UniProtKB/TrEMBL annotation:
Cofactor annotation comment: Binds 1 divalent metal cation per subunit.
Organism: Sordaria brevicollis
Cofactor requirements of the protein: Zn(2+)
Stated name of the protein: SMP-30/Gluconolactonase/LRE-like region domain-containing protein
Matching PANTHER family: REGUCALCIN
Record has Zinc as a keyword: yes
């Protein structure tokens, strides 16, 4: 729980991009081109917008697979190729043609599963959570957390998950954070940089207020900025596991965040349960931005070989 007298607040009243994503997710800032890319998982789209040129620069790439998350690849121009997590595993995506080639397939290629969220660890390994695809209905305990080394091998690290969500690392790289949405909990592990192994699992933060923990990013001071689905907000969780800040937004289903300098860009999903004409219904699926006065940790690129 938060001490409301010590919680800093920011208020956002309208979206930066009002594009009505079905399930906006996975924002990723490309410093070299000053562009932000993000996905619409349900609509199978990759969106890209220049943060210098503004909303009119939006470009959309339509795919034939749900796309959960993306990452840059060491030695590759991200305007040409990036790593993407698709229906059956991780793939190389040609951003000009929309064609992709799977590097590694996971989950036995079952139609019941899809990729969800993931991230590259401080040493270039890619971690990815899988869960039941939309057509299955209510997610079951069939999801897993995988680790990919050098793009060739995958190892199932955690089994029996329902909705595995964001991952991140502390500024010193010694702690890995992972959110399991059904438990509304951010777990922490000790992280071994030599082999990518994790140990000493513990609860870092348990959410007991409105909303469900979705995606997050870690800032330079080790705070976790965590989106709350059905919570109309992003909470700032201190390294001690306490809420110390909150971004209030006009729509319910907040999904993930990304730092662009000191600004926080925030994705959201459509609000199918609110009444027509309400701000939540109107702005659901929009992309928001707010200056929060701090910066995030830089992304590590995926080491392919």
């Amino acid at each position: 729980m938060a001490d409301q007298n010590q919680v800093q607040e920011w208020h956002v009243t309208e979206p930066y991009l009002d594009l009505h994503c079905q399930l906006g997710e996975g924002p990723y800032y490309e410093k070299g081109t000053q562009t932000l890319r993000f996905v619409d998982i349900k609509a199978k789209r990759l969106h890209t917008v220049s943060v210098t040129d503004g909303p009119d620069s939006l470009k959309t790439l339509q795919l034939d697979s749900p796309i959960g998350v993306t990452a840059n690849i060491k030695g590759q121009d991200p305007q040409e190729k990036i790593l993407v997590a698709l229906k059956y595993g991780i793939a190389l995506l040609d951003r000009k043609t929309g064609q992709y080639d799977y590097l590694t397939r996971i989950g036995g290629e079952t139609e019941r599963l899809r990729s969800n969220d993931g991230a590259v660890d401080p040493h270039g390994r890619f971690w990815l959570g899988t869960m039941n695809d939309f057509h299955v209905g209510e997610p079951q305990t069939e999801g897993s957390l995988y680790r990919f080394d050098l793009g060739k091998t995958s190892e199932e690290i955690v089994k029996g998950l329902i909705i595995p969500n964001s991952l991140g690392w502390s500024p010193d790289g010694k702690t890995m954070y992972f959110t399991h949405t059904p438990e509304n909990t951010v777990f922490a592990w000790d992280y071994n940089p030599e082999d990518g192994s994790i140990s000493n699992k513990r609860v870092h933060y348990k959410h007991e207020e409105r909303g469900h923990l979705d995606g997050f990013r870690v800032d330079k001071d080790g705070n976790i900025w965590h989106a709350l689905y059905d919570g109309s907000s992003v909470i700032k969780i201190s390294p001690a596991g306490k809420i110390v800040g909150r971004v209030i937004l006009p729509t319910n289903n907040i999904t993930c965040v990304e730092f662009v300098g000191t600004e926080l860009f925030i994705t959201s999903a459509a609000d199918e349960n609110s009444e027509e004409g309400t701000p939540s219904k109107k702005y659901g699926g929009g992309l928001f931005r707010v200056d929060v006065g701090t910066t995030g940790l830089d992304h590590t690129e995926f080491v392919l070989e």
